[in-house]
Specification:
2 copies of one chain form a homodimer.
Chain A (H helix, E strand, L loop, with lengths): L1 H18 L3 H9 L3 H9 L3 H10 L2 H10 L2 H9 L3 H10 L2 H10 L2 H14 L1 H12 L5 H4 L6 E2 L5 H11 L3 H4 L1 E5 L5 E6 H6 L6 H4 L7 E2 L4 H11 L3 E5 L5 E6 H19 L14 H27 L2 H4 L2 H4 L2 H24 L8 H30 L7 H32 L9 H23 L3
Amino acid sequence: MNEDLRIREKYEEIRNLLNEKEYRALRGMLNDMLPYDISVFMSESQAKERALIYRILSKELAAEVFAYLDGDIQHQLISSFSEAEIASVLDELFLDDTVDFLEEMPAYIVDKVLKVLSKTRPETRQMINMFLKYPFDSAGSIMTIEYVSVNQNYTVEDAISKIRRVGLNKETVYTIYVTNENRILEGVVSLRKLLFANNGDIIGHLMDSNLIYAYTNDDQEKISALFRKYGLLSLPILDKENRLVGIVTVDDIVDVIEEENTEDFEKMAALRPSEKTYLKSSVWDLAKNRLLWLLVLMASGMLIGLILGAFEKALVVGSLVVFMPMITGTGGNAGSQASTLVIRGMALGEISSKDYAKVLWKELRVALSIGIILGAFNFVRIVIQYRNIEQDPVKIAFIVAISLVFTVVAAKITGGMLPMLAKKIKVDPALMAAPLISTILDAVGLVFYFGMATLVLGL
Amino acid sequence: MNEDLRIREKYEEIRNLLNEKEYRALRGMLNDMLPYDISVFMSESQAKERALIYRILSKELAAEVFAYLDGDIQHQLISSFSEAEIASVLDELFLDDTVDFLEEMPAYIVDKVLKVLSKTRPETRQMINMFLKYPFDSAGSIMTIEYVSVNQNYTVEDAISKIRRVGLNKETVYTIYVTNENRILEGVVSLRKLLFANNGDIIGHLMDSNLIYAYTNDDQEKISALFRKYGLLSLPILDKENRLVGIVTVDDIVDVIEEENTEDFEKMAALRPSEKTYLKSSVWDLAKNRLLWLLVLMASGMLIGLILGAFEKALVVGSLVVFMPMITGTGGNAGSQASTLVIRGMALGEISSKDYAKVLWKELRVALSIGIILGAFNFVRIVIQYRNIEQDPVKIAFIVAISLVFTVVAAKITGGMLPMLAKKIKVDPALMAAPLISTILDAVGLVFYFGMATLVLGL
């Protein structure tokens, strides 16, 4: 919290300097701040202030700040820039940040930027064209081409002088990639290892040829699993011919992991995933992302209504109706507990689709233990609490108790199995979460409940 | 997939070499493998094979593999080790890995290990005692003390020779920490910067004194937010007197992020968070973690039953009962959509508790748009589909439609506000998710529904 306060005070100072038009002092102050903190201040400012601050920043810092800004603010800034200003932003921006930025811009901005690039840096424009062709959320779309590669025959001294010459940012120089004349990846060597070696040592002898790598078309979820498993700082990305074309660095993976988790949270709550943050989404965007699933699930709710209609005699027994919310609620909750554990286990690679027998057997036993406890508890409770109702309280208690056991077992098995089945047929398991499971359990639980009631009460 | 196959083939080979007792060839092969891959093979092996493989590994590799193993396998291995063997594992293990391992062991193993340490490395034993005192999930409990620190007056050459001398692992030498004689942190300098500097340059002039840091007692969630925001590779951790006591590295943060997300997923599904993976948890562990919340939520379900009992005349109208699942289901789903977005937004720092008015206003408008669409749709459907029922279909359709609008609005507002309220009163917002929201909405929605029915139908 202390830290937050300190930054808030700085923001106050910036605002004062802006109001007093003390641009020189402002520039000095901004140059001492972290790019992320400047981007937050700009996000909270008016458009005019924002452009002013941006122009005060040194060219290099401006590019770093730009990469941190949200798409809509980047959009608004770029719209107000001259061609020369655009060229100057692009000069300093890393290629992967440029691609990230272009992917979020409307077509006319992309055109404008690419036109500037064609004039000033045609080779970059070509690279960008290639990047924009990689599938969304693939390794190709998140990788960077700024890395250091050397030949096997280099000495340690050659390698260090190459690092100095190309001078990239910190994440990308700590692993050096060894490639042959056809750009085929042959090994990696860490900067740390170079530091411990003698100047004349040959890279080919120092390098580690036990490689971990991925391909441009691999999904980013697979990439982040590799980082997690092996504790990587960076990962080389190859094309189909095994040529090194880029690397993914760990700082981008931290974002990928949060993005993938957010997507799972959204899908598991019957929301269509959205790239925008909550506060930035318009009311209509939010409504649209929620409406489709609500309608689908409501349609199932209507179907349940139709099925219930068949139990006309049981439906009008008031003492049966009062237990409906408890049975559907418990079914939904029990099912979503199981499905959440299985969905999460699969996302983290702890459960694979061949484990279905283990999951089934485990859920069955868990469900029986829980179902019997809940059922027995309710049997006793109902016999005592509802002793004065019209129907035989023991019969009602029995119907509720046996329905609870059945519903919990059905819930745990549906919740455990549906995500695994989804994975098998290549549907995202995260969709088989609470909302869908609850709806299915509403139907299954209530049909059993009213069916049992019709039977036991002889309706 | 290709990659997986390649590893599977290697595992086949290891198994063959083990069966044929070709230990020399096996040792050669294992030395070329990645520690993580060896740990997976060991996890899938029998206890006897496991101990055999472990003893074949070189001392350094053995320690790396050990750090990757799950707690139960570490436990089983350590139990079978002599004191000399334990000492040899501890010799090579990084301090943070030793602490992670001890935190998962039963008391008698901890005692055994600490006894060995007292004899062989008393100073390490002291450090461990300090680490074990940091709160669970605090920066102190995840940090490592293996880092390089230098004095302001060092030259670049001095610094590089110190790095070479202490020779730590790759994540921990890429940022060098500058401290004064009282161990107060004064700046940081990246290894990359040293590489670009001249041997005689003074660290004090090169260092960046615009520091990002945290304290030993800070929660790991706060730490991972700092990594995400600033794209860090490592973060210095200070004690209360601002002395540098350790660093957290990004590879550990990747694990922390997944851990925190798993905890949120579990809480949001009414599960008590568990450290064990699904397949490793016993049936009784799983049942225990689910039972408490199911009981609490069922108790609310019982309460709803009691309240419904008050509407005795409305309860026995069959054409009202058939719409109950649709109303409760839609309420629960609409509420959990809102709560998921707000919980996730707060976890990622995109929504803060002072945004409650914005959230309220947004949810109100979203809810009205959705509620009116769903309500209108159902009004028309019911009038047509249920035209032959006993009651006036227009009245029934009106009751259902208005209840849907009310339930959706109540759901969105409850779902949006409860997590923010929870944060305010220092309860984890993740608890205000689908299960609790659905239960509340069951009550609110049905009371409105049957109340409205009593009124409109004049029951």
